[in-house]
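lol ok so funny story. i was supposed to be doing the assay writeup but got distracted and ended up predicting the structure for this chain instead. priorities right. anyway since i did it might as well share w the group, maybe its usefull for someone
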Amino acid sequence: MLRNTLLLVHDELLGFAKSRVMLVLWILMPGIALAGFLLLRGRPMLQTGMGQMSAMTFMSLIESSIAGTVAALMVAVDIVSERNRNVYVLFVIRPIKREAIVWAKFIAVCACVIVACTLALAIGLVVDVIEGRTITGAVLYDGFKSLTTMGHVIALACAGGVLCGVLARTILVAVILVLYVGQNFTIVPQLPLYLGVMKEQFWVMMAISSALVLVVVWLAGVVFRRSQF
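and the output, tada:
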């Protein structure tokens, strides 16, 4: 059972990694973020209280704003599309739990999109080095925290996308659910910050985000298991 599940995860990873959408994202997402930084460099909107915003910080902000939505839409549309093509009927005769299909898609999309975001941050770091910025341990730690935050945003959005894809029966409905419902999952862990609670508890917030991801994907798996194909 475990071996079949791992094979399913492997197949999903290869499928998404080789898709034209992911190939574009791995090139286009870092390219757009870098182009935006180069065009806006030196302008007031990139000025902070500590001076000019670094390329790595700028690319982190840009990637965080679009990567989650992209991941959620990818996984939701893929689930609905495969259901409409009766792909899941074939899994009935295989010794694979239905929940494994949901988890495999979640892991594959998250991994692929996080790779694209990591590449963008790495490019930002290289640009900062070229521009002569001092790369200290604190800078690297901030970059690690930015990547961690981005990964959790992507995971939360993707979890919402999985649930929307399981609930929807058409691609249009799935897209609407992702844009107007699923994306709100990324806001939930930040509510304590808006309420003035746990402002300095970064890793606690990340733990809450991880727990929420597990709950949402588990719920999507339960709904998917009970679905009729």
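The chain has a mean pLDDT of 80. Residues 2-225 form one domain.
back to the writeup now i swear
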